[in-house]
Design a protein that fits this description.
By secondary structure, this protein is mainly alpha-helical. It is built from 3 helices and 2 strands. Helices cover 46% and strands 5% of the residues. Strands 1-2 form a two-stranded parallel sheet. The longest helix has 15 residues. The protein is globular and about 40 Å long.
Length: 81
Amino acid sequence: MKTKNIKHNGNISLDDVIEIAKVMSPRSMAKDLSGTVKEILGACVSVGCTVDGKDPKDLQQKIADKGRRDSSGLKVVVFFV
């Protein structure tokens, strides 16, 4: 019988997330590494773990914000602040 509503807790480093994303990138449908990192962060949200003590959703938003295009139309790629 499966137990429901299990609350997971844990913390993983951002470096670990990036390393996992590098390993998983050949199987990912994401265009670039930042997309694969966002997929891994989504898995962190699903199991309830934090990344460097922060909510993975906040890190996903930072990646999305940093991937915006600048005024000349070039994509600005800055990974993390």
